[in-house]
Structure formats: structure tokens, C-alpha cells
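Milestone 3.1: sequence recovery, worked example.
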């Protein structure tokens, strides 16, 4: 009888989430509140214009609903993954195919790991982990400017957010923890936010928000290209300013580009704290790691306990290494697969198998790719200009030291998240009480 009641409760919960994502059309984004909040941070309209006018598809105007039970399942999967990553046997296994720089072991953990999930019928499946996930402070901005849902849909909901000020303090504390792990009681004074040609980056508004946040906490902060850094006299420098910590937004995770040599040398000499760092990417975000995490024989060989194995095998999209010897089998089953470059990021050069041409498939075979079982994303129905549109969605957990700091959603159309769909972008997440 109890089992029957539990089954009924779960079914109602699923229907409730589905109905909310199909029917609720309440606006979540309040642009006036956004402008006011930014002005309070000292913005004279520049960042606001970058976000609202120049990047109109960065912030979705609606919210996404997820059940409390589903969200807890995601946290359990993250905990299971983190427990395996902490194992020396796992680290030895993945570092065997990582770049040499990953063998350097700093004490810093790495900020903003991004765990991305698809929710197929409210059953979460991890599709990838990112080691320098962008958007955390942008989503804190969404939280601060969110307007409430109407009374019709507000019953039975919990906010998954903290106050924006609390999130900001959480992020600042995280960078301080990274610094203290390496430098103890020494005072952190300067930070460089580093990316290739940062003024051209889509996430430039977030760089500027971080700069303001760090400066509000007394930290001298610059945003720069790695080529603007020099290494001499036992320190990393930006012009005449010594840099204590680098917030690394580069997507060349091994730091081996010619323009990154000063940064790499200072990092390996332990003259600057870099976060996230090459080892973090090797342990977490190389997509070949998912091959190990979804192979029961590999997990048994590593000594992973049964309960953790069950969580991983059920909670991560099954992933295999693409090999030319198995080309015929991959081509025959391509419609059930998603192909991703092992060292890729941001959905670049990733392909749904049912969209593949033979030419692209041959290119995949000649490169370093993994194939992942296709997990259909859940959907959010949104009214845009008096017309209803179906958006796909994924959920991202921003994680530090195995704990979720913030959960956000991304709405999109097409094969992958792209921030190009009108009405799409980052969205606030609301929890439906079980």
C-alpha cells in the first residue's frame, strides 16, 4: 500500500513540473530591477547595455521548474562523481592520457566546476562536466532582479536561490579559499581575469561584473589577454602590477599556446595561484573521463563501491571512445549517439548523430572524440511575441569542493546550447515541492 502511495505521489510531482513548464508564462526577468541593481554596483549603463541590448539572448525572460526529488538525484550523482575523482587510482588512470602539465599538483581545488544535466522524464542524466563553467555571476544577477511568479503558479514552490549578496560573498570566499590553500595567511591583493582577447568574448559582461565584485572587496583587478602578462623577478606581472591570483577563463586548458608561456612558467614555479588550473581540467572535464565513469568493469577495477557504481551508471549518459576499428558500428547506431571532442568545451564541434554527414563522421574518426548515448532534454514552453515556442533545456550546477553553490537552467533550440535563440539563455530555476 505504501509503495502504491509513493508511486502516485511521484507521478503527481512529475505532472506538476511538466504542467508548470508548459503552462506558466510569468515573466521572471525584471529589466528595471536589473538596471537598478547594476547602478548600485557602480554601473553607468555600460554592462546593462551589453547584457540587454548587445546580448539579448543571454538571459531568458522566463523561469524553469524542477522537482525537489529530481534536484536531489542530481546532487547524489555529483557526490558520487566527486568521491571517485578523489580516489588516487582514478587520478592515476586519467592522468595517464592527460597533458604533462596536469601532473603538477597545486593545492587549489579549482573554481566553478559546471555539472550539466539533461532531464529526460524527470530522470537526470549528466552529459558533461566543465572545469571553468561561465555564467555563475550572470545567474546571480538574474536572481537579484527576478520578479515573483503569479499566485496561480506560486503555490508549492521553493526558491532555489540565495540572496544575490549571499551568492556574491560565497564566490568571493571561494577565491579567498583558493588563495589560502596555496599561501596560508598571506594577504591576497591582486587578481587578473584572463582570457584570449577578452573584449571580444561573449561573456565580457561577466568579466566586468567580477572585476567590480573583487574591487568592492579591496582587490586590485585587471582583465587581460595572456599575452599581456610577463614573468620575471619571481612573479607574474601585468604592466607594473604584480599578480597574485589568476582567474583563468582560457579554454586552452594545458596553457601551452605561445601567448600563454609567461602564465605557464609562473604557474609551474608556484609564483602565481591559477584557478581553475590544468590539473582540474584533466581530472574533471576531459570527456574521456566519462568513458571510465560509465564503464562498470573500469569502476570495479578502480575499487569503486557498488552503491556508487549504481549511481554513476544510472546517472551519467553512457560514453565510449570513438575508434576507427568500430567505425561501422558507430555509423549504424549514430542516430542514438551524440559525438563530442574529448577536449572540447561549450558544445564546439559537437554533433548529434542523426545530423551527421559521412564527411563529418570521417573527420570525427580521424580526431579524438567520444560518443555519448543521446539523452533527450526536457522542454519549456514559452510565449514569444504572442507565439508559443518549445525550448530545450539543461540544468547546470556550479560546484565547489563537491557542494552546489547555485543551479541555473539554459533554454535553447537546435542541437546544443548556443545563446542565439530569441527568448532563450540562462533562466532562474524554481523547485516544485515533492
Amino acid at each position: 500500500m505504501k509503495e502504491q502511495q509513493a508511486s502516485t505521489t511521484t507521478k503527481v510531482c512529475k505532472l506538476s513540473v511538466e504542467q508548470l513548464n508548459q503552462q506558466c508564462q510569468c515573466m521572471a526577468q525584471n529589466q528595471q530591477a536589473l538596471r537598478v541593481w547594476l547602478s548600485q554596483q557602480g554601473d553607468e549603463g555600460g554592462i546593462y547595455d551589453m547584457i540587454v541590448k548587445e546580448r539579448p539572448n543571454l538571459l531568458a525572460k522566463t523561469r524553469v521548474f524542477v522537482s525537489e526529488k529530481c534536484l536531489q538525484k542530481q546532487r547524489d550523482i555529483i557526490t558520487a562523481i566527486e568521491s571517485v575523482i578523489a580516489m588516487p587510482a582514478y587520478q592515476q588512470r586519467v592522468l595517464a592520457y592527460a597533458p604533462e602539465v596536469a601532473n603538477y599538483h597545486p593545492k587549489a581545488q579549482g573554481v566553478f566546476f559546471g555539472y550539466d544535466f539533461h532531464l529526460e522524464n524527470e530522470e537526470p542524466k549528466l552529459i558533461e562536466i566543465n572545469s571553468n563553467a561561465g555564467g555563475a555571476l550572470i545567474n546571480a544577477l538574474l536572481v537579484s532582479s527576478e520578479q515573483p511568479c503569479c499566485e496561480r503558479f506560486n503555490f508549492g514552490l521553493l526558491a532555489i536561490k540565495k540572496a544575490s549578496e549571499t551568492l556574491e560573498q560565497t564566490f568571493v570566499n571561494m577565491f579567498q579559499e583558493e588563495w589560502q590553500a596555496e599561501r596560508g595567511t598571506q594577504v591576497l591583493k591582486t587578481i587578473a581575469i584572463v582570457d584570449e582577447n577578452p573584449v571580444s568574448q561573449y561573456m565580457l559582461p561577466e568579466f566586468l561584473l567580477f572585476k567590480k565584485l573583487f574591487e568592492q572587496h579591496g582587490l586590485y583587478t585587471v582583465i587581460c589577454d595572456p599575452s599581456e602578462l610577463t614573468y620575471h623577478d619571481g612573479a607574474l606581472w601585468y604592466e607594473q602590477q604584480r599578480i597574485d591570483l589568476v582567474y583563468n577563463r582560457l579554454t586552452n586548458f594545458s596553457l601551452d599556446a605561445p601567448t600563454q608561456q609567461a602564465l605557464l612558467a609562473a604557474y609551474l614555479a608556484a609564483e602565481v595561484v591559477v584557478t581553475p588550473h590544468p590539473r582540474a581540467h584533466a581530472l574533471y572535464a576531459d570527456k574521456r573521463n566519462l568513458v571510465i565513469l560509465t564503464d562498470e568493469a573500469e569502476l570495479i577495477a578502480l575499487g569503486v563501491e557498488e552503491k556508487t557504481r549504481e549511481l554513476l551508471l544510472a546517472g551519467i549518459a553512457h560514453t565510449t571512445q570513438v575508434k576507427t576499428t568500430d567505425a561501422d558500428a558507430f555509423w549504424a547506431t549514430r542516430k542514438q549517439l551524440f559525438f563530442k571532442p574529448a577536449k572540447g568545451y561549450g558544445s564546439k564541434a559537437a554533433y548529434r548523430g542523426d545530423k551527421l554527414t559521412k564527411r563529418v563522421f570521417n573527420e570525427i574518426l580521424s580526431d579524438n572524440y567520444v560518443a555519448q548515448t543521446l539523452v533527450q532534454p526536457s522542454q519549456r514552453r514559452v510565449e514569444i511575441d504572442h507565439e508559443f515556442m518549445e525550448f530545450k533545456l539543461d540544468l547546470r550546477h556550479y560546484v565547489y569542493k563537491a557542494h552546489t553553490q547555485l543551479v541555473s537552467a539554459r533554454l535553447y533550440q537546435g542541437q546544443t546550447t548556443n545563446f542565439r535563440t530569441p527568448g532563450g539563455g540562462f533562466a532562474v530555476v524554481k523547485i516544485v515541492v515533492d
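The chain has 16 helices and 19 strands. The two ends are 19 Å apart (CA to CA).
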